[in-house]
Amino acid sequence: MSDRPKTPLLDQVTRPADLKQFNDSQLRQVADELRRETISAVSVTGGHLGAGLGVVELTVALHAVFDTPRDKVIWDVGHQCYPHKILTGRRERIRTLRMKDGLSGFTKRSESPYDPFGAAHSSTSISAALGFAVARDLGGVTPEGLGDAIAVIGDGAMSAGMAFEAMNNAGHLKKRLIVILNDNEMSIAPPVGALSSYLSRLYAEEPFQELKAAAKGAVSLLPEPFREGARRAKEMLKGMAVGGTLFEELGFSYLGPIDGHDMDQLLPVLRTVKARATGPILIHVLTKKGKGYAPAEAARDKGHATARFDVLTGEQSKSPSNAPSYTRVFADSLVQEAALDDKICAVTAAMPDGTGLNLFAERYPSRCFDVGIAEQHGVTFAAALAAGGMKPFCTMYSTFLQRGYDQVVHDVAIQRLPVRFAIDRAGLVGADGATHAGSFDIAFLANLPGFTVMAAADEAELVHMVATAAAHDDGPIAFRFPRGEGTGVDMPERGEPLEIGKGRMIRQGSRVAILSFGTRLSEVLKACEALDAKGITPTVADARFAKPLDKDLILSLAADHDALITIEEGAVGGFGSHVAQLLSDEGVFDHGLKFRSMVLPDIFIDQASPEDMYAVAGMNAADIEAKVLHVLGVAQIAGKRA
Q1: Any bridge partners for residue 477, and if so which?
Q2: Annotation says 375 is catalytic
Q3: Which of 10, 72, 470, 622 gives 20 to 30 Å between its CA and that of 38?
């Protein structure tokens, strides 16, 4: 295509081994071409742009120096892996990123041998690299072989406890292991905490030009005759990297900081490490997120996640919204509640913008806490805030809350502490695929004693659920809502607390009742329109609560209808399972009720649009209509009519 960038050297690269033919100045050109190709590709697909642009030179240098896929390069989180995918035989498909049947937006083992470990949650890379290093030394076998293990981890991800658990273990085991700290001072939100300040001091307190010179001095570490030069360079580096002590105390040799966009530093340092490293070593690399693309560099989030965009202007092509997003409705409602109650506070784990808490932080900065990528800590911190008389809203994506599950059980549920869990990105989320789907929270929360679990059917219900959570002091309470726009319903001026454990009737019908939990209600109502045309009028109810269940509502639906169907945007073991347990306990099945439960299938659904993902799940209006016809035994008639 004519609008594609010219990339004469990159065109010669079909796999990383092809980089070995180039000299260092040519590798610099490959990096420039790779940056242009990445920008071009993401302009077509949308996706995570800034992180990949920040590691272009590092990606080229790693693949030029090491022997992948025998050497394992593990990208933490993986949202920076687009340049890596272009170099590892996937360039032809790079414009299918994050699309149905296309490339994943993260590393994925089933996609390529160059992705040795799949990731989409942060802070796992050092643990994985150590596992590969130990497997190598114990004689483990993989089709590509086992060589070096290299973890590339960002400064935001390094703040998570798991990264330190892994470093502590690696320092103890003393295995040859390479950790590259990709320090761009910019995770999704500005990184917080003592580690971030510590890293800032590493390069703020020393003249960076001298560090550059020192890193270039590392060239002299390679040839044997220059041992004296090598010794001096090492001492110079150690003297200047005053803060390297933290990593050295954990058992790592520390090298850096070096300029991650300067191939004259990256290549010799990586070659030296490859030739000489014995135990664990940490290379501290400074990069800029969004590097080399002005619109990304200028953006507040450095182009972290973008829609499709115009390459020349950087302008994103987002379709206009007809209704507010659920996230915005939650944020506005929480701000409104906090204005009336100074005990309300909010906790998030490195996602203030994604969860809408940036709006809360602007209004009430002393009551908003971003704990960094530390969901376990965030949950326990919220538990103690509740024990201390505050009303904490622990606000996390469903997929990230999974990381704090032990704390949800032990620190919140067992102690019956009134932590309010605001669970964003519930259900299937689209382009981020299986790793970010909020599939399991209904099941893993509703089985905990004393927990109240709600799901909003639309944005107006969400406003009421925020008010319900704010008013609820009797144990933990959770409410879930999806990514994306609401349904365009009329909005209340302010939320009214709901009666705990009470659902609502939506429409009265006969023969079959549909009990909906969450935002599939709009699809249920579409299905009912189609069924009405066939002379079938289902009863529809909105459960609102998965725990405690509205027993009276459920038992009356069961008594008054031939069939009952539940539907939820969650895995088996959630709302429908609790309804089935109730009906079983009450002996309802002894009298011939037909019961069906529509849940997400027992598979991980790959990325596509949310509509396509729900089609795979069999949970769109047409699927609901088919389920009703089938349970009533009229599917055949419907087929003949059609």
Answers
A1: 420, 452
A2: yes
A3: 72
User: Which residues touch 583 (CB under 8 Å, ≥6 apart)?
Assistant: 554, 555, 558, 564, 589, 593, 595
Closest CA to 171 of 244, 254, 276, 279: 279
Alpha helices in 222-320 (DSSP H): 227-240, 245-249, 263-276, 294-298
Per DSSP, helices labelled H in 102-256 are: 125-137, 161-173, 194-204, 208-217, 227-240, 245-249
pLDDT at 312: 85
- Return the amino acid letter for 553: L
- Alpha-carbon distance of 628 to 114, in angstroms, equals 46
**Rg for the chain, CA atoms, rounded:** 27
Cis bond upstream, residue 257 (ω within 30): yes
Residue 32, amino acid: D
Note the pLDDT tens digit of each residue in 388-406.
999 999 999 999 999 999 9
Q: Which of 188, 187, 170 is nearest to 179 (CA)?
A: 170
Contact 534, 638 (CB under 8 A): yes
Q: Taking residues 327-341, what's their average pLDDT? A: 97
Q: Looking at 136, 291, 403, 547, which residue is catalytic? A: 403
Residues 449-491: tens digit of each pLDDT:
999 999 999 999 999 999 999 999 999 999 999 999 999 999 9
CA distance 74 to 80: 11
Per annotation, catalytic residue among 37, 375, 568, 625: 375
CB distance 425 to 482 below 8 Å:
yes
CB 573 within 8 A of CB 555: no
Q: Any idea what DSSP says for residue 438? A: B
Angle at 369 between CA 368 and CA 370, to 5 degrees: 125
Residue 493 catalytic? no
| Residue appearing with tokens 């726009």 | 485
Of 72, 289, 425, 547, the catalytic one is: 289
Confidence of residue 189 (pLDDT cuts 50, 70, 90): low
User: Mean pLDDT across the stretch 610-630?
Assistant: 96
The residue behind tokens 């060239």 is 219
Give the model's pLDDT for residue 316.
85
